Structures are given as structure tokens and as C-alpha cells.
Amino acid sequence: MDNGEFLDRGDVRLHYRLSGRGVPVLLIQGVGVVGGAWQPQIDYLASSNYATLVFDNRGIGRSLPCRGPITIEAMAEDTKSLMDHLKWDSAHIVGHSMGGVIAQQLALSHPTRVRSLSLLCTFARGKEAARPMPWVLWMSLRTRIGSRPMRRRAFLEMLIPKDDLPAEDQDALASEIGGLIGRDLATNPPILFKQLRAMARHDCFSRLRELAGIPTVVLSAEHDRIALPRFGRSLADAVPGAQFEQIPAASHGVIIYKPDTINQRLRAFLDSVEQL
Fold first, then answer.
1. b or e along 67-106 (b: 16 or more beta carbons within 10 Å of the residue's beta carbon)?
2. Distance CA 270, CA 256 (A)
3. Are the C-beta atoms of residues 151 and 143 closer than 8 Å to each other?
């Protein structure tokens, strides 16, 4: 995020940005990503009678210095503190990947603050994201070795189905996406591994029945090899009344490279909850 404000929580100084006016929507991002990655959703929702709040999770982007723990619970409390700071009694909570895990924890800890949950390309058991499967290990290795252009292209393949990747100008695409997520795709900052460890230690699956009464939608991407669609289906089955939808011909980075699909689905869900 290139502008915004700060909230000092003592062990971390959180950077956040509020856009638009209307019904509150809070968007939580995933591993190694800053709040600005939600820009396609910010632009759409802020023009649709929704006020959008995005922020950098502790220890990344401009949410520095961070002297406190990097845990899912701490990041969920950061989220609540921002709502308190803005005097939001409740908000629609949208989380992608690790952000979906944080959103679930927020809803379990503070259910009255959550109007609805939109859980995108995510899971209930964080260890599912850190599982040592051959493809995951191979792609992780490719993002750490080789030339910088090679590492950037490997990262793109984790976000976008190969059939959708342009044959040319992948460097330009990597630069554009890097601008949104807040780093060069060829780099793997230490905070990324701390966030992965935090997620791997978190498992709230046995408590998901407590979310009964909170309108919930789980969106998975057909070709997502990080948050497999079966993880999304399992998550939706565990939350009483949750809707599940699989987005065709999409992968883990769907919020960035297929924003229209996500924006329209989110808007329809949020509007339906507001009409209840």
C-alpha cells in the first residue's frame, strides 16, 4: 500500500488503508503478501456502497517494527484491534489463503464482530498448506534457486494455471503482480517462512461447528495446487450452513488475475447477507 495510516499496538505498528464508504468489509491477505494485493477488490467494492479495510499483517510490508509473536492468533487480534480503532462493531470478513485461516480464528474468538465470512483458496488445517507433497516441494525449490527471472516465473506458475500464462512478457506480468503483493517475486523474505510456520501450527477444524449462524461462503479454485479444492470442500462441510463453490479454470492467485470473477461473486454474497 502506497498510503494509509498506522495503529500502534505496542508490539507492532500496523499499517492499514480504508477506502470507500458504506457497509464495512475487512480483507485479510495470505503468506508473503501485503494488503495492497486486494487492490482489484478495493476498487470494485469501494464503488459499490462498501467501505474496505486492508492492512499489512504484522512483520511484513509497512507493519514494522514487529516485536511480538508471528502466530495466527496474534494476527487475528491485530484484525480485531483495527476494527476497534475504526469503531466497527462488525464487518464482513474476507480472507485469502492464510488470510482465510486468520478470518476463521477471528470469527471463533469474536463471533459477534463478524457479519459474514468469505474464505478464498484456503483451509481449516494450516498444515495442509505446508504439506511435503512433491509438487509443493519442487515449486518451493524453484522459487529459491536459479536466476531471478527463473524464480519469478516459478512463482507465477504457483498463482496462475500454465494455460493462462502468456508465452511472452512474463517478466512484465511478474513485475505487475510483484507491485501488488509488495515484493519482487524472486525474493523470499524471512517473514514468509515465519508465516508458514505459524500457519502449519494452527488447526481449528474441530471448532468450526461453532461458526453456525455466521453466513459463510468458501471459494476454491479448480487448479489450485496449494489450497486444493478438497480442502475447501472439507472446510465448507465443517461450517454449518456454509456454501461451497469451485471456480473453474483458476488457481491460487485468482483474486489478482481473475478479479472480475471474484468481485462479482463476493458482491453477490455480501449483498445477499445484507438483505437477510
1. eeebbbbbbbbbbeebbeebebebbbbbbbbbbbbbbbbb
2. 19
3. yes
Number of domains in the chain: 1
Q: What are phi and psi of 12, to 5 degrees?
A: -160, 150
Confidence band (pLDDT; 50, 70, 90) for 166?
confident
Residue range(s) defining the domain that contains residue 162 = 5-274
pLDDT surpasses 90 at 220 = yes
Kindly report, residue by residue over 131-161, the tens digit of the pLDDT.
666 666 667 778 888 899 889 998 898 899 9
Residue range 181-201, pLDDT digits in tens: 999 999 989 999 999 999 999
- 122 and 100 Cβ atoms separated by less than 8 Å: yes
Asked if 132 and 152 touch (Cβ cutoff 8 Å), the reply is no
- Interior angle at CA 126, CA 79 and CA 25, nearest 5: 30
Kindly state the average pLDDT of the residues 196-214.
95
Q: What whole-number distance in Å separates Cα of residue 146 and Cα of residue 161?
A: 21
> Could you tell me the CATH number of the domain that includes residue 32?
3.40.50.1820
